[in-house]
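Need tokens for this chain, all 481 residues.
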Amino acid sequence: MLLKRFYEPKLAQASYLVGCPSTGEALIVDPNRDVLAYVQAAELEGLKVQHVTETHIHADFVSGSRELAHRTNARLYLSAAGGNDWQYDYAVSAGAVPLRDGTRFRVGKVEIEVLHVPGHTPEHLAFLVTDTSSASEAMGAFTGDFIFVGDVGRPDLLERAANVQGTMEESARQLFESLQRFRSFPDFLQIWPGHGAGSACGKALGAVPQSTLGYEKRFNWAFGVSDEADFVRMVLAGQPDPPRYFAKMKQINKSGPRLLGGNRPPARLPGAELAAALARGATVVDTRQAEEFKRGGVPGTINIPANRAFTAWAGSLLPYDEPFFLLTDASGGGLPDQLARELSGIGLDGLAGYFGPEAVETWRSTKGALQVIPDLTLSEVKDGLQTQQVTLLDVRGEDEWRSGHVPGSVNVPVARLGQQAGGLSNGRRIIVHCQTGARAAIAASVLKAKGLSDVGVFAGGYAEWTAAGQPRVTESSPAGN
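Here are the structure tokens for all 481 residues:
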């Protein structure tokens, strides 16, 4: 048996190739939308992709299963274990083989046994893998978003991201039962999870790429809880706000992702067209780093730096139903091509082109000065609050806000600013902060693009405020320290 792991760091997402060299067959588990990587990897091993499957209806990226099966003429296997409400809408038209608990299929001499392990989602599956050429027991399991290294999948996403009300506690109980079932498997069983550290599909995922069931039984907190009620309370406590685009991913993956038919690089547009795009209300994303944008950005653009968090913020802030543009600092096409693939990976297919760095100078020469977003000091923030001349806007998540915030500040998470910016216009200067500054810079650009003129950033954020011993409000001490 041949096993290869693929990892997309900006999604913290893992997918896998299982191959049988003797028959030349390969199975891809949980592919993302950049499907050429799987085809090429199989070819390098002398294999052909003949089987494609996934553990569940993903919420954090667009599945590549349909695309890959279509491109390679492979057999598609999809869960039919979650009840009518959680069937794949396109399964029948795609000729997918329905998978239920106990289903078995072969990839040459490799046997795959399907286990229904609901909890993270109702239809979630795990796959036991046995290399029958040398063994009669499973070597490992693809656990998707069920068991991670050091954590388990969160059971609250259906309610908090997809707005399926009343499902959190029931899903948590199902997750507990699924874990009890897994206790019966041998300790040597390898665990190949669907995500690593940084994923929003769990609270505290480990960075190690794989584990064993025995290790997780000893050190994963979820296996250490024997009471169901305690588990439900603990697994739901402290879950971070799900990214805003998760609901859209569920919808896309359930109904069937649009077939791409290949990667098409974005077109580079003349710098002079930037003004016209902004004038007609198009969204333009400046992908330069925050410090450069704050020193001089084109009015009307928003800033999402091209770093590890680019995909997550793009999914929360960019439109899914209309064209948008990028403004980059790369003179060639490499960076825009990469960003286009990342955007496509979360279903943002509306990229209409990109502008190079000359567009900024073209704007300056034809339209006038660039906008500057000032950084403010702790002292300036304190003075503004004391004189009631500013609105201190905390753009962290609600859970972070509840655990502690600056007295007198207002909380609107970054992803909601587009809808709530108008309510912040009260004639005062707005000072934006988060924990350490990264989210605040993005939020300030959104506010400026929405027409709020007097906006600054407290770059030190809540971390600097607390380090300086300043008063703070928490749920346990609503009046301050």
